[in-house]
């Protein structure tokens, strides 16, 4: 599975203002007051999180470099306020994050046991019916169904 979005943070403020912001989120239910499950989140900082018929937090130990690259503040890849392409690729045991075609993080997981499951996205991905681009439903940012697309702050996203 691959997810890719064009991103521009021209109106997003300082890196510290959006360092926890997801670029892509998928949930089983509509707007909520917390991060319900199942869910899948691709953070702007280059980190992922999955909780869908199993879970994975993509830890330093699972990273092929043995440390997660966390991109914000001095390493903010959107600081130039230009357009950039964010891509995530996933298999049942591997996940990769790319910025502008350059690999920034890669994780290998066993595929079973606590903290090692990505495969639920493939077996139960249809449970994730609500998509949020450039925001997060836990903080009541705009939610979009799978059939819609729009511009949402703090990022401008085109797919």
Q: Summed up, what is this model?
A:
With 159 residues, the protein is mostly beta strands. Helices cover 5% and strands 33% of the residues.
Helix content, binned percent: under 10%
Rg calc: 15 Å
User: Which structural category do the helix and sheet elements fall into?
Assistant: mainly beta
Give the SSE order as H and E letters.
EHEEEEEEEHEEE
Our estimate of the beta-strand percent is 25-35%
Strand tally is 11
Between the first and last Cα atoms, what is the distance in angstroms? 15 Å
Largest sheet at a glance?
6 strands, antiparallel
- Low-pLDDT ranges: 138-159
Average pLDDT rating: 81
Shape: globular
Sequence of strands across the biggest β-sheet: 5-4-3-2-9-10
Number of helices: 2
Name the descriptors:
mainly beta; 5-stranded antiparallel beta sheet; 6-stranded antiparallel beta sheet; 159 residues
Overview of the structural elements:
The structure is a single chain. This protein is mainly beta. The protein is built from 2 helices and 11 strands. It has helices spanning 15-18, 120-123, and strands at 2-8, 22-27, 39-43, 48-51, 55-56, 84-90, 94-99, 102-108, 130-133, 144-145, 156-158. The strands form 2 sheets. Strands 5-4-3-2-9-10 form a 6-stranded antiparallel sheet, with no helix packed on it. Strands 8-7-6-1-11 form a 5-stranded antiparallel sheet, with no helix packed on it. The longest helix has 4 residues, at 15-18. The relative contact order is 0.27.
Topology:
Elements: E1 2-8, H1 15-18, E2 22-27, E3 39-43, E4 48-51, E5 55-56, E6 84-90, E7 94-99, E8 102-108, H2 120-123, E9 130-133, E10 144-145, E11 156-158
Antiparallel strand pairs: 1-6, 1-11, 2-3, 2-9, 3-4, 4-5, 6-7, 7-8, 9-10
